[in-house]
Design brief:
Elements (H helix, E strand, L loop, with lengths): L17 E3 L41 E2 H9 L3 H9 L3 E3 L2 E2 L6 E2 L6 E2 L5 E5 L3 E6 L8 H4 L4 E2 L8 E7 L2 H12 L4 E9 L6 E4 L2 E5 L3 E5 L7 E9 L3 E7 L7 H8 L23 E8 L2 E4 L4 H4 L5
Parallel strand pairs: 1-18, 10-17
Antiparallel strand pairs: 2-5, 3-4, 3-6, 7-8, 8-10, 9-10, 11-16, 11-17, 12-15, 13-14, 15-16, 17-18
Helix pairs in contact: 1-2
Length: 305
């Protein structure tokens, strides 16, 4: 499926290109992937001169960042940053320009934790999810879209949303046909010096909190583990998963005595302290798209060894 070219748009016409978020200390905010068009509401100017106050002056048809600053009790610079980073939406649509004129009764939805926009076109949005963000909470910012994949709350990295039902169904079929490539980074305990292919069936108990187990009666699962860099007590590995079972990477690595650092479910007795689960979705490819996180993994995992 080809994308039509549109004037003054950031949409890409080739799906063979890898879309990468810009690097930063934290998950960065790609400010160049937004559509450049916005609806301008005619501003009604009052002939009377209002008295200056300590607060931002608000009139009918006010710039979005000023209105957001007043409503959220934040600085105008902070409001601009929130809008420019794609974290503000109005009526389910992301607000693209901070200077868009809006009426006084505008209600904003603000995603408090940043998720950089890696890429967006007519069919799909690729985000760089931060640690601590629930996948389903992204739908509060994008209520008209559907999740294509999910990441655990404590896992960061590439997450995708379908903008229409056709894309969602195509993505579902791609997953069923195992035509989706996902590559993760993980910091694991112990040292690994060569590639390990783990093929162990997994069953998942889904109560209030999901937990998976290695079970001969479970579903087939494969994880391909490749060492990237070894340290004193740990190894940074990349993990490719042709299958996508709940907690697959976490339970597979724990089953071979190389649990992920910071995993409080499958690595409870670890003596290595960590501020987060050291698991990050680095790349996702499907339907001709290739998306890559812009996170510096050494900084994200705070690797100083």
């Amino acid at each position: 499926m080809e994308h039509k070219k549109t004037q003054k748009s950031t949409r890409q016409t080739s799906r063979n290109k890898t879309y990468v978020a810009k690097k930063n200390t934290n998950i960065t905010q790609n400010r160049n992937s937004y559509h450049k068009k916005s609806a301008t509401i005619t501003q009604t100017q009052s002939a009377a001169t209002a008295k200056k106050t300590q607060h931002t002056q608000i009139t009918q048809g006010t710039k979005a960042y000023k209105l957001l600053a007043l409503q959220c009790n934040i600085s105008t610079n902070k409001a601009k940053d929130l809008i420019d980073s794609g974290r503000v939406s109005v009526k389910g649509k992301r607000l693209p320009i901070a200077r868009t004129l809006l009426p006084l009764n505008t209600k904003f939805d603000v995603l408090t934790t940043p998720c950089a926009v890696i890429f967006e076109d007519n069919d799909i949005v690729a985000l760089d999810k931060s640690v601590g963000v629930e996948s389903y909470n992204l739908l509060k910012t994008y209520p008209h879209y559907k999740l294509i994949n999910r990441l655990d709350k404590d896992t960061s990295g590439v997450i995708l949303l379908a903008k229409n039902e056709k894309m969602r169904q195509n993505a579902i079929q791609a997953f069923k046909q195992k035509k989706v490539e996902k590559v993760y980074f993980a910091l694991i305990e112990g040292k690994v010096y060569e590639e390990i292919v783990i093929e162990k069936k997994i069953s998942t108990q889904k109560d209030s909190k999901a937990k998976s187990h290695i079970n001969d009666h479970g579903l087939h699962a494969q994880s391909i583990v490749t060492p990237v860099q070894t340290f004193t007590h740990t190894t940074l590995v990349s993990v490719q998963i042709p299958t996508g079972r709940t907690h697959q990477i976490r339970i597979h690595l724990a089953s071979i005595k190389h649990p992920i650092v910071g995993d409080i479910i499958y690595n409870k007795t670890s003596k290595i302290k960590a501020k987060r689960l050291m698991l990050h979705c680095q790349k996702t490819s499907l339907l001709g798209y290739r998306f890559e996180s812009g996170v510096d993994i050494h900084e994200a995992f705070e690797i100083n060894d």
